[in-house]
Design goal:
Blueprint lengths: L1 E5 L3 H10 L2 H4 L3 E5 L2 H10 L4 E4 L8 H10 L5 E6 L4 H9 L4 E4 L4 H33 L1 H17 L6 H9 L9 E10 L9 H15 L6 E7 L4 E8 L7 H19 L2 E11 L3 H14 L7 E3 L17 H8 L3 H18 L4 H21 L11 H9 L4 H19 L9 H13 L7 H7 L4 H12 L3 H19 L4 H7 L5 H12 L3 H9 L2
Parallel strand pairs: 1-2, 1-3, 3-4, 4-5, 9-10
Antiparallel strand pairs: 6-8, 6-9, 7-8
Keywords: DNA-binding, Phosphoprotein, Transcription, Transcription regulation
GO biological process, one term: phosphorelay signal transduction system
InterPro entries: CheY-like_superfamily, Homeodomain-like_sf, HTH_AraC, Sig_transdc_resp-reg_receiver, Tscrpt_reg_AraC-type_HTH
């Protein structure tokens, strides 16, 4: 601690140094000055903790010196020591927040007590400054503090319902402003077919979803405490409702619908939303536990919204009656389509029974793989030649997500087996599937015709179906669709008076310029030229 003694009389300075045990009071450094200017210079280099100064000095009085100290925001505790008991001096000292005012002649015992009090004041000021510093830091770190608290809570209660004791105690320890009377809302978002987002950086993807969720769920009377990952393709959110404010459940559902719509339209994926609103603070742990059980075991939903509180857990007792020797015989006999239909019908029955869980889907997948391996072994086909690629790995992992995803995996698995093993007569089935798709294309030329939609008609993987289509027809699927659309456009141009823009829409082109470009590439003429040419004949 540093003390600065200022007086234009050297004897006064020397008397204080020798008459007061400054070291015993806690001062580790003593600075002295014989003028206000000299005192300022010393303060610029090292601000003093305590300033003991005369008022009347030759160049500058002590009041002016203290004014300068205050202007520079030094936390210096000041004691005036003067021989002039003038009221104006005392008044000005009070205005400048001087700590004490002492009249000469100096009595060292009294001065010692005043300096001791000044030292205590310095320590109080330091303590207040430190508390403010830590308090500001604590306030600045509150968002991180809250997020860390909830991330720990979400992980802690994901696997077990440990009661609310930990929540309450941890919140108090972290000085979080939660009371037992406060309400909270938990939301869980489960994404399907997230592989479509694999080109995204994981960090950027998380940030994108956090931004969307933050915007959609900015509900009145609520604050978003955290948005956290709940594993691959899943997010959890906690809303804080201080003072038992109830959330608008219809507004909550509308936000869920908008999030599902965003996932469908902009991300090309599906999503389920699970929520439980207006939960007391000490009950949120049980809800976190139940929510995790539900969304990890529910396999029937897709683009659905569920209320966690009344939700009844499935018992998972569904038995799979059809993955047996009968299925193996059907596959060996080349009855591929019948086999697909039988398995997929069984899956739909399982979903309708509401007794199928994720573990049940996993059992179905394992039994199906066992049957397929038996068929491959009977025909002498090594299994690794079929099921070791990226497509198989992805679809196999996704299959236990929902019943619909399992149905797609079943179609892919059986079709891949068909391609390698062959049908009853040794010829792989495929012509019937392609003919079915051709008929669908001809009847829906005005609609979007994606590979996934067309492959889904015959329960095939989109990549595999596109490859099979080219093998069987000699042209890519997209080229075939384009050719059929232009052929129909030619008929409409020749046989009707529809405007070219309507013709374009009739054959699946919303953009007239693009339609004209494609038409010209296929025919060498613009749509208008083609119509005039045909009308002229």
């Amino acid at each position: 601690m540093v003390i600065l003694i200022v007086d234009d009389e050297p004897d006064i300075i020397e008397g204080v140094i020798t008459g007061v045990d400054l070291e015993g009071l806690g001062f580790t450094e003593v600075m002295t000055a014989r003028s206000g200017e000299q005192a300022m210079e010393l303060m610029r280099r090292k601000p003093a903790d305590v300033l003991l100064t005369d008022i009347e000095m030759s160049d500058m009085n002590g009041l002016t010196l203290l004014s300068w100290v205050r202007e520079h925001d030094f936390d210096t505790v000041t004691i005036f020591c003067t021989a002039y008991p003038e009221f104006n001096y005392a008044k000005k000292a009070v205005e400048l927040q001087a700590f004490d005012y002492y009249l000469k002649p100096i009595r060292y015992e009294e001065l010692t007590e005043k300096l001791r009090a000044a030292v205590r004041k310095v320590r109080e000021v330091r303590s207040e400054r430190q508390h403010k510093l830590y308090g500001d830091y604590w306030l600045e770190s509150q968002p991180d503090n809250r997020a860390d608290f909830w991330n720990r809570a979400l992980m802690r209660y994901a696997g077990e319902d440990g009661g609310g004791g930990w929540l309450v105690g941890e919140a108090q320890k972290r000085r979080l402003p939660y009371q037992e009377k406060d309400f909270f809302t938990l939301l869980v978002f489960d994404l399907y077919r997230e592989n479509k987002l694999k080109e995204w950086n994981r960090g950027l993807l998380d940030t994108a979803f956090e931004n969307v969720l933050s915007e959609l769920f900015a509900l009145p009377g609520c604050s978003i405490e955290t948005i956290a990952s709940a594993g691959p393709g899943a997010y959890q959110m906690v809303l804080f409702q201080p003072g038992r404010r109830t959330v608008d459940r219809e507004a909550l559902r509308e936000s869920c619908r908008r999030f599902i719509g965003f996932c469908n339209r902009h991300m090309g994926i599906s999503a389920d939303c699970y929520f439980c609103s207006d939960t007391p603070f000490d009950g949120i742990g049980a809800i976190i536990y139940k929510a995790n059980r539900i969304f990890r075991d529910d396999v029937t939903g897709c683009n659905q919204i569920y209320d966690i509180f009344p939700y009844k857990m499935k018992d998972g007792s569904y038995a799979v009656p059809y993955l047996s020797a009968r299925l193996e015989k059907m596959l060996l006999d080349g009855q591929w389509q019948q086999a697909e239909q039988m398995v997929c019908a069984g899956l739909q029955d399982a979903a309708a029974s509401e007794r199928i869980t994720r573990s049940g889907l996993l059992a179905i997948q394992q039994d199906l793989m066992q049957v397929v391996h038996a068929v491959l072994q009977a025909r002498g086909v090594p299994a690794h030649t079929l099921f070791c690629g990226e497509t198989f790995d992805r679809m196999s992992a996704e299959a236990v997500g929902t019943v619909d995803q399992m149905a797609q995996f079943v179609g892919y698995l059986i079709r891949e087996t068909m391609r390698s093993v062959g049908g009853k007569d040794g010829r792989p089935e495929g012509e019937a599937a392609i003919e079915k798709v051709r008929q669908y294309i001809d009847g829906h030329l005005s609609e979007p015709l994606s590979r996934s939609v067309l492959a889904g008609l015959v329960f095939m993987n989109p990549d595999y179906f596109a490859k099979l289509f080219k093998e069987k027809t000699g042209q890519p699927l997209t080229a075939y669709i384009k050719r059929r659309r232009i052929e129909w456009a030619k008929e409409l141009l020749a046989q009707t008076a529809l405007p070219v823009s309507q013709v374009a829409q009739q054959v699946g082109y919303d953009n007239l310029s693009y339609f004209s470009s494609v038409f010209h590439d296929q025919t060498g003429l613009s749509p208008g030229e083609y119509r005039r040419q045909r009308k002229g004949k």
